[in-house]
Amino acid sequence: MTSIQHNLQHLRERISAAAQRCGRDPQEITLLAVSKTKPASAVVEAIAAGQQAFGENYVQEGVEKVQALAASQGIEWHFIGPLQSNKSRLVAENFAWCHTVDRLRIAQRLSDQRPSHLPPLNVLIQVNISDENSKSGIMLEALPALAQQVAALPNLCLRGLMAIPAPESDYTRQLAVCQQMAAAFNALKQDFATIDTLSLGMSDDMDAAIDAGSTMVRIGTAIFGARDYTGSVQQ
Ligand SMILES: *Cc1c(COP(=O)(O)O)cnc(C)c1O
């Protein structure tokens, strides 16, 4: 067994255990394998181990992998990085999901640029739930208005919410933040029939996120190993 296979199996067991501890069905939780900075060969190994959903942060790098692996059946690519307007077309044309919609202008561009032969782009609205230093994501107060506008766009499907809580080591405090996201997610479900995805939880807060109701955890390092940024140019 390769280490990627081994890591994936171990993570699936951790997700199952976390779900069972809080009385949830592990099937409700999707593992998104974050492959940023990793070569296509690492993604191929993960695919061989049964992994289907992959997350990328950098548009250019992500598009290269999407195109290199276009022949792989059943693979779903998620864009999870900050998105600048001038890169929106590449996301609209190459990805199945975008987790980082946080303003109407970017949503409008993604809808306009989504090719007509593809199904609507699945989108999540990113909420800035606890990190005052982060410029990404909207405040919860602004969510109802933006959700209405995004849901009305023809070539997008509003599926739910995403957040990157500020790092916090205390489980009770992690859980409190995750529960705020879950409450917003459940409220949104009442308003839109398409809402089914709460993208919440990384390596250090996965258990609290699952406990609160996350349906998608985003994990990179624990699958693919540490990232090496030396010498690379990110966009
Ligand atoms: C990099 C990244 C992850 C995964 O982080 P790891 O620490 O490698 O598990 C998850 N979500 C987002 C938005 C990321 O940028």
TrEMBL record:
Modified residues (N6-(pyridoxal phosphate)lysine): K36
Swiss-Prot/TrEMBL keywords: Pyridoxal phosphate
Every Alanine racemase N-terminal domain range: 7-227
Pfam families: Ala_racemase_N (PF01168)
UniProt cross-references to SUPFAM superfamilies, sorted A to Z: PLP-binding barrel
Superkingdom as given in the UniProt entry: Bacteria
NCBIfam families, A to Z: YggS family pyridoxal phosphate-dependent enzyme
Stated role: Pyridoxal 5'-phosphate (PLP)-binding protein, which is involved in PLP homeostasis.
Similarity comment text for this entry: Belongs to the pyridoxal phosphate-binding protein YggS/PROSC family.
Subunit description: Monomer.
Name of the protein this chain belongs to: Pyridoxal phosphate homeostasis protein
Organism the protein comes from: Candidatus Pantoea multigeneris
